[in-house]
Specification:
Length: 621
Amino acid sequence: MKKNFSSILFWQSFAALLALLMINTPFAVRSQLVDKGPSWFGLDVSWVMTLSYASIKHLVWGKDIVYTYGPLAYFATRTGWGISRWFFVLFDGFIVINFYFVFIDFLKTNIDKFLAASILICTMLVVNQNFGSDLSWVLLFFIIYWMMKTFYDQRPFFLAMLIVLTVLAFYIKMNTGLIAMVFLCGHFINLFVCKKITPVKLLICCVSFMVLVIASAVLLNVSIISYIAGSLEIIKGYNDVMYLDEEHFHIEHSLYILFFALLLWFFYKLYWQIREKKHSLIIYTIACIIFIFLLQKQATLRNDVQHLYEYFSFAPLILLCGFTTGEKQKPHLKYLLVIILFALFFVSENRTIDESFAKRVAGPAAYIKQFREYNSLIYVNQQDKRYIPQRVLNNIGNKTVDVFPWDSEYAMENKLNYRPRPVFQSYSVYTAALEKTNYDYYVKQAPDILIYNYDAIDNRYPFNDESLINLFILNNYTLIDSFTSNERLRMVLQRKNKTSPLQFTPLKKQEFSLKDPVDINQANFIKLEIQYNLAGKIKAFFGSPPHVQISYMREDGQWFTYKTSVELLKSGLFVKDLIADDSDYLCLLTDGQVPAIKMIRLEADGKYFNKNGVADAYWVK
């Protein structure tokens, strides 16, 4: 008895130690702005800071701010501007507790403790010490774990953990949170069908969940329906245009090896559950498969080194949900160890094993030190990196300001009266609905001043990122100044005393062949609707979407080709003048001569699209 107690205490202590070493560090991140290089260097810092700004200014998520990240995003971004240090401590402690339960259950449910412990140690070394944006995947992993745990044991505390995690996931990042809500709903239905939960207890769980969601929405300034709808629009458009064509063959091939190894494990579990008629467990295996598929989709869509490496860091976590409580199934720990070792040795090419170990061991001490030194007020203190001349600042004063296309740091670092449009970075306006959201905002409450830089990412045409607002700006703003900052021309535009919405005069709606140029006639604005065929839909769902480019022929016969998407084409294109760069845009603002567009055509692989599309032409003024 004494020996057994000592053994239990040892493994509990071991699990607690590993969980403590999983502490999310750094405690907070203060992003350092750069003032050299391409303007997209300021893109990520700006959205992170704008989300903090939205919380400080009590903007309403879903209406004033439309984004997939929510009001608790600072737990993922680790940006502490305006956030008490104790919020981080409480949240991080909650994460450590979750890891403890995962680790101790994994050890309890596997006979070979040392092999199970080896898997946990390797997992600890594989996972990035700073979860960053992948925090949402960590939360989804915990949610799947608690679903499986509460299938066997419906203690109120366990159910409460599941509900709280789902609500947190929803308000940290809506898209992952929505998936978690679907999982939770399926889990509750499964428990009820399997008669593992009484109707009364199920009702209490459902009511508790809904009350917590609604109460949190009130506290966090969230319009729930708008928050969901806006985020779904971003998700819908993201997939079509945010892919990258970078080639990292070594990483990609290794990623797919890991992906299919994980897939094989869960398909084996699925096969076993069907064979043994454990049908009530199938929902949890499917949840695990969805987890690794969505994480793989995220990594390979962006296809840059950072996202690809993140797959190796976080996908293996889901193996810890494969414990065998209540089953008489052989755990096959050796197979799991092979998978986790593969991930570990691949990650070690970028982050050596001894480096990972040293950082993990030092993590708790570093966390305490950073907690003591934490200052939530120092974030907006890099004005020199977002230089605006004093004459411009004097002219702006306390007037409302918006920044194009994305670098809101110009407003925040200079303490301006920043009033962001709902989708506050132009590259994120992926769909017609998002375009209309921003346009309606400008029609009703256009900011007094715009700090404008003509730019886009990934070889997209800048004017067609928010084409309606760009046309609105041309009609309702005047150039009052300009300056050079961060090696880019920044134009200062002032709203006219009286603004008017755009007036659309329909000209012609006709079908066109994707193989032929599109007839623009006398139009200056055109909406193009093209559709994937079945092959295109399959490709877009499982991998990188079929690529679409748009080419403009200028009046001098020169062609310009840009990346676009099905949704961006549907939003509308300005087809009167070709604005190739800052000087062209400046010329357009001052009624100068800008080369006209004579012809446009789409470049798309015909095997993924319907042969014909629809062109809807307008004259806009």
